[in-house]
Amino acid sequence: MFAGALLAGRAAGCRRGCGLARPAAVLRHIYGHIAAVTAEKKICLITYFHVVVGELVPKALALRRAEALAVAVAPPMLVFMALARPPYAC
Q1: pLDDT digit string, tens, across residues 15-44
Q2: N or C of the chain: less Cβ packing under 10 Å?
Q3: Separation CA 1–CA 7 (nearest Å)
Q4: CA 29 to chain CA centroid, nearest Å
Q5: What phi, psi does 36 have (nearest 5°)?
């Protein structure tokens, strides 16, 4: 299961990294001194932030303040559950 999540995160990093090519090209056109950023660097940067911000920070917060975080997250989760509930069959 961990391997699947890891591969999904890498694929998301690759997809987002490739999506940054056009804005980077526009910036290079506007500011000629900006060096081209390779796809590998973009993928590494996005994957790093995905792991740190998406996994390590929430885990650290949950370990430090589990009860307070659960109380803060419960109301939005209830709203999301109500909105995402499948429609009842007639």
Answers
A1: 555 555 566 666 666 555 445 556 777 788
A2: C
A3: 10
A4: 28
A5: -70, 135
